[in-house]
Amino acid sequence: MTLSTPRILTVGTGAVGSYYTWRLQQSGLCTVTTVCRSTYEVVKANGIEIQTIAWGEGPHVFKPDHVVKTVPSETYDYIVVCLKVLPDVYSIPDIIAPAVEASPGACIVLIQNGIGIEDPIKERFPNNPIISAVSYIGATQVSAGVVYHSGMVQRLIIGLFEPIEGVDTTRYLQIFGDLCKKGGIEVTVSDSIQNNRWQKLVWNGSMNPICILSDLWTVSDVLADKDYKKMVETTMNEIAALAEALGYPMPPTLVENSMKTSLQLAAGYKASMVVDLEEGRPMETEVILFNPVRLAEERKLTHIIPTWYKLYQDLVKYFAERRK
Which of 145, 200, 235, 266 has the fewest C-beta atoms lying within 10 Å of its C-beta? Predict the structure, then answer.
């Protein structure tokens, strides 16, 4: 590991990948390479404009040290994956393989949503440390080479997926955390990162299907309807109860705080799967819904999630009808 200036490769340089990689570069302690497919020419020529008030008025232009079209067979210390988890569309292990195979000691950082995202990576690359990261940030790619960051929140919760015998995995975690802090990212190191994943799922797992199935689409419209608001709260409580049953204790005020935060979102705010549905893009149904529901089925715990389980089944039917 090049402790003096770690080499970082970001795979998935959309809004979230662009923003966090920019801040890592701003630490002044690492070099960054970004994989840009459709935006390669724009980013190579002009960099990425980051529209944000979190660092003054700007303009803020992120110019990666290196821009590439595909994952290179080069040595890196950290391979940061910010791709959406879409196993029906592509294989993330296949995509990152050239860099991982050229970097036998590289740490793979997964800044992604959902449950069970680490398993395919661990299976393919058992000797590489994995940092699992939960992101809280309002960032969207408004056009090629332009990212909009709303508000001031740019939070990462990071933790090791599993220890690896003979590898100082905590050193990787410490160095990555230090790079984040130096770059101004609000970072928390967690010793129970799966717990944090389930905490985020409480919002994602309830709000996404209800926004879609209600045909109201926006969070504000869903919460303005008394019945749907009650359904959101019930579903959040069920997901939290499932997490508890699976061994992940949830904070007692989690649902209350999630509801408060939801009510404070800007009018017209849409959950991620709603945006993807509108844009005709694949949605992260596998890791936000299917994986956790499968766990409930395998452990005979579906009785804990009656409302959520029905929403899941209705959503499967809804997607089947749309495909027809």
Answer: 266
